[in-house]
Design brief:
With 351 residues, this protein is α/β, with parallel strands linked by helices. It contains 14 helices and five strands. Strands 3-2-1-4-5 form a five-stranded mixed sheet.
Length: 351
């Protein structure tokens, strides 16, 4: 019976071995192909100085999936396509999806219109307008308000125009900083629209409080030393750019460019897409991110932080040889190779 019904064991074994060899070859080929693809991606990142943490973005993974679905021969977007048609589609996508859903929340619960202003290095007064609601915040527009900021009446006209744009029935609060012109504008706005309240910005109030604290004798000497470090940084443009981009100070360079370039609409569109997508990502991750905890701040940008994840902040404490207690700090002090002290223009070295 075995002659007719029992399988040919030897043939099955050889067939199985053949399939295993084929699987092993395929896995090795895919591994090599993946390594080449990843190497090409990372080379592009190195060339363009793109932060390494972009690989954690869900949009990055989605991009790879769609490229894989397309298969061989995908032609990437051209320079023109990135700047014009795809940017327009991105604007439409943000406006029709995220902002429409926010507008529904505004109608239910109301919203706050926020005006965040500052003066750039060319003494232009720029104001970013945002709207906040339980659904999150959205960026509306960046405005060159140089002609408006001189009087409270002008600021009132600007704020009133944006209240109309967002919708008078939905705006219940307008938030600005507490400079005198804005205070007057807030009062005029409340007089015209009785259901609306003007509120000074908490952050600006805290800044004013801290400035007053800094004038106290116990703190003034320490702040003077801090200002010497600030001077050291600001006489070095490259360092200013590095710190600005890493979040150590507010980086308004993008918004300044909007008002200094001829192609204002395209730059406005780019900022509109960028910041609203970022605000949506922040809102979507609200249950995962502690808004107070500093440990959730993204400091994984190796291009800006100057070190890789897991590296020690104090390289002098690193051992020269494993199993020995000799550190680079000891060698530096013994050889006199320690880095010299840097001084600001206002500091004099004494022997």
């Amino acid at each position: 019976m075995d002659t007719y019904f029992a399988p040919n064991v030897q043939k099955n074994i050889e067939s199985r071995k053949g399939k295993e060899r084929q699987t092993t070859i395929n896995e090795a080929y895919k591994k090599e192909l993946r390594e080449k693809a990843c190497m090409t991606i990372t080379d592009w990142m190195y060339d363009a100085a793109i932060p390494f943490n972009i690989v954690n973005y869900s949009s990055f993974k989605k991009m790879l999936d769609l490229v894989g679905q397309y298969g061989i021969g995908l032609k990437g977007p051209s320079y023109h396509e990135v700047r014009v048609p795809f940017l327009k589609k991105a604007v439409d996508s943000v406006a029709n999806d995220y902002i429409k859903s926010c507008e529904t929340e505004w109608a239910k619960y109301g919203c706050s219109l926020m005006a965040d202003g500052w003066t750039d290095k060319r003494h232009m007064t720029l104001i970013n307008f945002l709207v906040n609601s339980p659904k999150g915040s959205i960026f509306i527009k960046s405005v060159d308000a140089s002609d408006y900021a001189k009087t409270g009446e002008k600021i009132f006209q600007l704020l009133d125009r944006f209240v109309e744009r967002v919708g008078e029935a939905t705006v219940v609060q307008v938030v600005t900083d507490s400079v005198s012109n804005n205070v007057l504008a807030g009062k005029l706005l409340e007089a015209k629209r009785s259901h609306l309240y003007w509120t000074p910005c908490d952050a600006h109030c805290v800044n004013l409080i801290l400035e007053d604290i800094g004038e106290l004798p116990d703190f003034k000497a320490t702040l003077k030393k801090v200002m010497s470090v600030n001077t050291y940084i600001y006489v070095r443009p490259d360092m200013v750019n590095m710190l600005s981009a890493s979040g150590c100070e507010r980086n308004w360079s993008v918004f300044e460019q909007i008002h200094s370039k001829k192609r204002k609409q395209r730059l406005n569109d780019l900022v509109f897409v960028k910041y609203n997508r970022a605000l949506k990502l922040w809102y979507d991750a609200r249950d995962k991110i502690d808004l107070i905890s500093l440990t959730d701040i993204d400091d994984s940008n190796e291009w800006l932080m100057g070190k890789m994840d897991g590296e020690s902040d104090n390289e002098e404490d690193e051992l020269i040889f494993e199993g020995d207690d000799l550190t680079w700090d000891v060698v530096a002090r013994a050889s006199g190779a320690e880095e010299p002290e840097y001084c600001t223009r206002g500091k004099t070295l004494h022997p």
